[in-house]
Specification:
Mean pLDDT: 92
CATH architecture: 3-Layer(aba) Sandwich
Number of domains: 1
Strand order of the largest sheet: 3-4-2-1-7-8-9
Number of strands: 9
Distance between the termini: 18 Å
């Protein structure tokens, strides 16, 4: 995969995913050349106190916050699906929030993000499936691969919960199966190619 040819990275995780996401956002360099869109399974609302976005932003060199409806997508920004909303991509590209029915008991769910991002970016998309206790993400990973994008799956043998990465591998396969440390190293090494 050639990084100058990737416009967006979509990441999905569930059980054990918070720790994985902290490591991933900490690895993103300040000049990361793509947009990063994240779904982590969580409750329908956040309690008072530190939000997931605020927690992750402490570890990230890039701007990072919850997505808002009709938000334009920009390279070098990290956005999260807010609690209680599916995160979708409309070509433009802009973000859309949805309160459609949960997918595999989750809202936000990974499949709607991956599938809509695949429709928008096609071969210019990288999807990463992390640890989790659900099969959510497997249909989305298949959509990304069918659209010509690339899929990385966290090695189920080292995931906190193997079900989600294993389901993605069984349904969609993967371009790379990596430990969390290797995912972080690959993202950290990204540089903008000279023009």
């Amino acid at each position: 995969m050639s990084w100058p040819d990737v416009d967006a990275v979509v990441i999905g995780g569930s059980a054990g995913g918070l720790e994985a996401l902290v490591a991933i956002v900490a690895a993103l360099p300040a000049d990361f050349p793509a947009a990063v869109l994240i779904v982590l399974h969580r409750g329908q609302r956040e309690d008072d106190g530190v939000t997931l976005a605020a927690l992750l932003a402490r570890h990230c060199a890039l701007p990072l916050d919850d997505a808002w409806d009709h938000q334009p997508v920009h390279a070098g920004e990290v956005v999260l699906a807010p609690a209680g909303y599916h995160l979708l991509v409309d070509c433009g590209p802009v973000l859309a929030l949805s309160v459609d029915e949960p997918v595999l008991w989750s809202r936000p769910a990974i499949d709607p993000l991956f599938e809509s991002a695949a429709d928008c970016w096609g071969a210019r998309l990288l999807a990463i499936v992390l640890t989790g206790a659900s099969e959510d993400g497997s249909a989305g990973a298949l959509a990304v691969r069918r659209a010509g994008g690339e899929v990385w799956v966290q090695d189920p043998a080292e995931a906190a919960v193997a079900l989600m990465p294993q389901a993605a591998l069984e349904r969609a396969g993967a371009d790379r199966v990596l430990s969390l440390a290797r995912i972080c190293a690959a993202l950290e090494a990204v540089k903008i190619a000279p023009s």
